[in-house]
Amino acid sequence: MARPEVLEQRLGHRFTNAALLAQALTHRSAGAPDNERLEFLGDGVLGCAVAEELYARFPRLAEGRLTRMRARLVREEALAEIAGHLEMKTFLRVGAKHPITPSVLADALEAVFGAIFLDGGYDAARRAMVRAFGPLLESLDPSDLEKDAKTQLQEIMHARGSKLPEYRVVATHGAPHQRSFEVECLVPDLGLAATGSGSSLQRAEQQAAKGLLGKLTK
Amino acid sequence: MARPEVLEQRLGHRFTNAALLAQALTHRSAGAPDNERLEFLGDGVLGCAVAEELYARFPRLAEGRLTRMRARLVREEALAEIAGHLEMKTFLRVGAKHPITPSVLADALEAVFGAIFLDGGYDAARRAMVRAFGPLLESLDPSDLEKDAKTQLQEIMHARGSKLPEYRVVATHGAPHQRSFEVECLVPDLGLAATGSGSSLQRAEQQAAKGLLGKLTK
């Protein structure tokens, strides 16, 4: 096992109470006290710190998109990826036969943030979050989230009390391994339709929804 | 509309930036800036503050039970109830024809905590949470949560890699309006069984699971 000081350096937090970090790095298969309660705490801390950061970074973004961004940042895959950058597995205490899965890594990362919170307070945890999540935060593209035209369209129809849009495949082209799809999006209540195409059904539907959104906002 | 100072008093937080509170109390049906982004922020703030409080109050409680407690405290019904105690609806700005539903109240309460967080920082929001959630926090009974014997049993079986317990009704007694049930809980892998009874199927199953847990821990 690598020395915890190295992890402290990567996190940008020097623990006053080193036992907290040790506990955060102890999977229950390795004995007590384990990191499960700290994981519970860290989950809350991360949710708050990530919300604060997104709220400040994207002052024009609507609640729905902020919520989706946060979900992306705190889901297991993202946490396991960050745990990977920190090389968490070299610091982890896990029972001899227990596999170090993405879920074990993600939980330990949450526990580490719970430990920083107890050791240094909310602001210390937030600073460490911004440091660890930095690259992932930088990679967030709000326009990318805007691309979810189907969701937007559905929300608009729902708010108007109109029937939800319908999608239907108009044509498929090409051989199976390079198929492209043409999809029509219909909003019967408004008598509007738009078509879109793409290399997957999902992309073609998004394109069609985008086209329809364009007609709506005219 | 009641004066916001009254709400500040109830919350135990005097805003430096009164516009934040006004925004938190503005439903989107009443115009912009509305409270939706603050609601996103407040959801994170509440999740963290409630986690911190439960972690400290129940030092022996396992992660699973803490998670269930938190879910109880921040679900819409609980938030709407607290909003009721604060008489939030008398402070709310809502469009003329828009109904003040439990969901509108719960969202506004979250937004208020987001506003306190921005105005006074995490600790101010935590203090206001403890004050507003006080009665609900006091009413939490960890032994009540312990009663969920079915969940406990299932978790134990799952951790052991054993087959999940089975439940079957052995007998029903009494007239329909005062029915009582007798249920058997079986763990085939361990050759264990226990029976329980109660005025609902759910209660009888819990009793049976409790009996089986007793046999397991002997």
Strand order of the largest sheet of chain A: 1-2-3
Find the structural class of chain A using helix and strand composition. mainly alpha
- Provide the low-confidence segments of chain A as ranges: none
The outline of chain A comes out as elongated
Full CATH superfamily name of the largest domain in chain A: Ribonuclease III domain
Mean pLDDT value of chain A: 91
Number of helices of chain A: 10
Identify the most extensive interface between protein chains. Answer: A-B, 25 and 25 residues
CATH classification class of the largest domain in chain A: Mainly Alpha
**Residue share in helices of chain A?**
55-70%
Which fold does the CATH topology of the largest domain in chain A refer to? Ribonuclease iii, N-terminal Endonuclease Domain, Chain A
Largest sheet of chain A: 3 strands, antiparallel
Approximately what portion of the residues of chain A adopt beta-strand conformation?
Answer: 5-15%
Number of strands of chain A: 3
